Amino acid sequence: MKKVGIVGGSGYTGVELLRILLRHQDIELTTVCSRTNAGMRVDQYFPSLRGFTDLLFTDPVDADLQALDLVFFATPNATAMHSVPALLKQGVKVVDLSADFRIQDASVWQTWYGQTHACPELLPKAVYGLPEIHRDRIRNAELVANPGCYPTCIQLGFMPLLEAGIVDRSTLIADAKSGVSGAGRGASVATLHAEVSDNFKAYGVAGHRHLPEIEQGLLMMGEGPVSLTFTPHLLPIVRGIHATLYATLRDESLSEEALQSLFEDRFRDELFVDVMPQGSHPETRSVRGANTCRLAVHRPQNRATVVILAVEDNLVKGAAGQAVQNMNLMLGCEERAGLEILPLQP
Amino acid sequence: MKKVGIVGGSGYTGVELLRILLRHQDIELTTVCSRTNAGMRVDQYFPSLRGFTDLLFTDPVDADLQALDLVFFATPNATAMHSVPALLKQGVKVVDLSADFRIQDASVWQTWYGQTHACPELLPKAVYGLPEIHRDRIRNAELVANPGCYPTCIQLGFMPLLEAGIVDRSTLIADAKSGVSGAGRGASVATLHAEVSDNFKAYGVAGHRHLPEIEQGLLMMGEGPVSLTFTPHLLPIVRGIHATLYATLRDESLSEEALQSLFEDRFRDELFVDVMPQGSHPETRSVRGANTCRLAVHRPQNRATVVILAVEDNLVKGAAGQAVQNMNLMLGCEERAGLEILPLQP
Amino acid sequence: MKKVGIVGGSGYTGVELLRILLRHQDIELTTVCSRTNAGMRVDQYFPSLRGFTDLLFTDPVDADLQALDLVFFATPNATAMHSVPALLKQGVKVVDLSADFRIQDASVWQTWYGQTHACPELLPKAVYGLPEIHRDRIRNAELVANPGCYPTCIQLGFMPLLEAGIVDRSTLIADAKSGVSGAGRGASVATLHAEVSDNFKAYGVAGHRHLPEIEQGLLMMGEGPVSLTFTPHLLPIVRGIHATLYATLRDESLSEEALQSLFEDRFRDELFVDVMPQGSHPETRSVRGANTCRLAVHRPQNRATVVILAVEDNLVKGAAGQAVQNMNLMLGCEERAGLEILPLQP
Amino acid sequence: MKKVGIVGGSGYTGVELLRILLRHQDIELTTVCSRTNAGMRVDQYFPSLRGFTDLLFTDPVDADLQALDLVFFATPNATAMHSVPALLKQGVKVVDLSADFRIQDASVWQTWYGQTHACPELLPKAVYGLPEIHRDRIRNAELVANPGCYPTCIQLGFMPLLEAGIVDRSTLIADAKSGVSGAGRGASVATLHAEVSDNFKAYGVAGHRHLPEIEQGLLMMGEGPVSLTFTPHLLPIVRGIHATLYATLRDESLSEEALQSLFEDRFRDELFVDVMPQGSHPETRSVRGANTCRLAVHRPQNRATVVILAVEDNLVKGAAGQAVQNMNLMLGCEERAGLEILPLQP
After folding, report:
1. Model's pTM, two decimal places?
2. Residues of chain D that touch chain B, judged by Cβ-Cβ distance less than 8 Å
3. Are strands B2-7 and C93-96 parallel, antiparallel or unpaired?
4. Burial of C302 (0-12, 13-18, 19+ CB in 10 A)
5. In this predicted model, what pLDDT tens digit does every residue of A3-44 receive, in sequence order?
6. Nearest partner of D167 among D90, D240, D234, D221, judged by Cα
7. Hey, which residues does A294 pair with through a beta bridge?
8. ipTM strictly over 0.95?
9. Is C149 part of the annotated catalytic residue set?
10. CA distances from B187 to B9, B12, C33, C117 (A)
């Protein structure tokens, strides 16, 4: 059985990897690293795991990561890039959940992330881990850059429209709303319950780090330059992203039914993208805890603007779930292994 | 002292009128009608009012509304229209918080509200109660149609752009998010805590009743036809609307600073519209309980798409507060009377 | 493979049964009844189930329940009692999640539930489905009365103290707090999001229907009469009960360590009761979606009052999960089958 | 007009003092100190105050506090005690919202707060600011120790019972639940939205700092030693405390009606304590933003255990509102001045 490990196991994406991997039948999770909690039982730190694991947190410097088949990095940005080169040399595969390898152009990365990249030579080798586009490359990848939470559902939502070439590529709008777990588990005033609860606001309207990642992805769908207005908002919920996407039809004779068929055809064979029936309004809770991105297609008043609704759990299809989906492809497991999780309702 | 009454005092806009009017120094609230609760003390039904009133609910058929100077209707749609004609004949002024008199064209109203209008002859007499546009007409009005919650902040947000004629009128988008109190106090599964909490979704994307109201208002700002894509969403909060508005600049040489000045100039003398400093992200909580609409202006990446952020408390500037603002104008009180309320923070 | 069905599949305990049973490897769910939704696809009503079932809702009068091995009743109180006698006669086993068979004394039931019991002759046959006490009787039962949500964790929390006879039986206090899903999925004003959210209150202090059920259970633990003060409160959360239990030690020389051992010994072999380390504060979220009751034992200031903290998910160990645990015992499956669910964190 | 200032103006009790004092007609707020934000406009930091103040934050070392009539300390514990002696010498009155002067016995304070008290000689001079007990002493006080949030409602709830000597003083229980704003505005993981939301837990069961403060207060009501079991819990709400209090009647012949009268008589002349009608369940929201403590009296099943329900807004009657009430008494204003605030509903 293949052996895997997690570096950065005490954050929200870390514990979500734990939740999924501890019930995965085809791999063995042998190592969970956390500098801060080294030596502590994992289920002492996360009592929700009591009864499911006896693992202790290891300090990453003490962990024998080279002996593993695959390592997940669930670390803050600009951390993985310092450890990944050595691991790859040892033949260990890597899925990086941070942003270190998502942007192909190192100078763009440096502009948005404010520092020099530690191993730009690896960027061409890194495969962008959106299986719905790059499945075959992921199967053979040694290093997968797991997509950001917003980028996953925004790219999936625009994908059929851009691939088919039926919308104006220069006036795309993504009005996106995310639950607060997307901000991570660090102590901060801005994400206190007393600040977030019974409240709602936009943030980063002038420019969010996911913008270049999304535009890089959209550019590869169909032909021609792309321009996206991306407005993130903070939802007073824990898990869930809802992206409301707007695009202008080039040909207004396309009916809502035709658009619906376009989406259904594009995702028919995808395990983790669900196109809902016409007229639907997917809700974030319908995918909570599950690795699904649910989409709905609308053309209100039969006007030129198409509205796509896309929901995902930012910690699952937007992070840990997609990372396991990528691992499954990289290690030759069934793509769905460990990911057949029914969402909690209510 | 002028005497006023409320018909429909047991819903959320009703109790919000009570909260404001019971502390209003210049008028006397003498009558609160509720068919269901007739005879019960108002503060028994709403314990938050204990110590502030001794009023009992009256059945509307028993209430001596003709003796009042002004009556608020906080009733479900298609209720006020049956009582308003008689009151106006008696010289009683009316502020209707429902949708009965908001649409000037009775056939449009009938299409969206699904029934015949009871007094279409009054529609030309009804003044649309958005003081930032119709202040002078409101002062002299006998019947004011208080705007809907979404329409208030969406119209205020687009107003400077459309009046100045600097954006494309055919590609307007309003991505709006509302707290659940906007759905009223009726028993329903869809607005149960267990359905709404830790959840988020769009609704009515195919067509929401506020669309014709908003388009009617936008049409009067500047010249030419208007087309709006309006996408409402349900927020897991009690009070608050956040509208994220998108418009395309006709002239891309206009700087973000120039747009900021345009907004500041337009609303400089408005008591209840607050243009925040450039780069701001207004939050719904900053206006909770207050009669303020707060706006921020953005032009991300200096591209052609302008993004306006607008927040209001749907029960105050979006309903009861604006209704009292209209009453103040109609009865000759100071426009701010009773409305200088500091929002709760946090 | 054994075949089972659900009557009352459109409420919260119904959909929770669906979530668990659709992933249960050892039984087949063949029938889901709902009068209101008969003929509709189950996953149309609950989109969270898309991809996991093709079942349609059946009207209970059309369903061939007699052909099943076991039927769950997730119906409102006073419904199951009309159908259960006929099913039992056909040899179909029943787990009733409502209150119809929980109280052994029909006259007590009638006092608290306000009507005549339809089949009091079945009460002696009904086994109270708390496996931690009645496991052997449940294995042989034809009819199991699944315990109420509050009664489950309150009985488990007091159990070691009362069985050991070390606390005063006449001054027991249970200060219990429940999430709103415990109130069910019916339309009601009291459980609207706008009423419950950012709010907290006690209810039913004068007398809650779970009081006689709990006292009946406590009475069977140890010797002598029992008197409980039970104060339920409504939490602004969806799932979860936290019971804070108070009891007075008869012998103050018993240390907190001795109490801790007492609890650990009592539940050592229980799969679904977890005694946390001394000094712990279990949180409702740590059992969300899981069939676990987590307990912690405290003796503050080393005084005579023992404080037990107990948490459970009211829809799982407090309803559907415990029902499946009972089914597993009744049908000879492994007790843990289908119930090894990791809680969502966060 | 009397001049007052706030030290520690950027926390939750600080901004709540601002909300109240900026609308107080009889005093002038001239100074708001915050080391971190010195030089920044107060309404830039708290946009909810835009339009209500032009004040800037001052560094406390630069502020001319000696020129004021009264200073509020809304600082973390163990801060005020370093500045208060000098101010008192200058004749400036002080209301301290922290715990520095609440415990009369310096050694007890030192045990619970983990450090040496800086000015134990002032403790005998400090008046405990619970007006319902110490009104006359507060009027003449130079230094008022504003009570803690839990202690306020727990003392008010037990007060009539202990003063009348009708309950056992050795078996008192306070099961208290607080909103998260009580934990203050510091960055911390434990109070993140993603940790607190849709969750509930007890904390500090082994011993909370408010325990000695409450027991000190209860001791002064009636005769004899007192023993309290105090269990605090964290509610997923922003504002509000609900204390459920349990006491055992010495004389079981006392009816619920008699208990109700006892409470009504005790608080008849109190402006800010509201005894609800028999059988009521006060909710935290009914006092949100208001300086009211609402009480209800129950004697379930007519047994020996009395249950008192007490709610307050922890930031108002539990902190800033009570501080202003104390200020009103100390400066000779009307006790209700600035505090006639109607709670938001819903």
Report:
1. 0.97
2. 12, 15-16, 19, 22-23, 44, 46-52, 181, 185, 197-198, 238-239, 274, 276-277, 280, 282-283, 285-290, 292, 294, 340, 342-346
3. unpaired
4. exposed
5. 999 999 999 999 999 999 999 999 999 999 999 999 999 999
6. D221
7. A274, A311
8. yes
9. yes
10. 16, 13, 25, 30
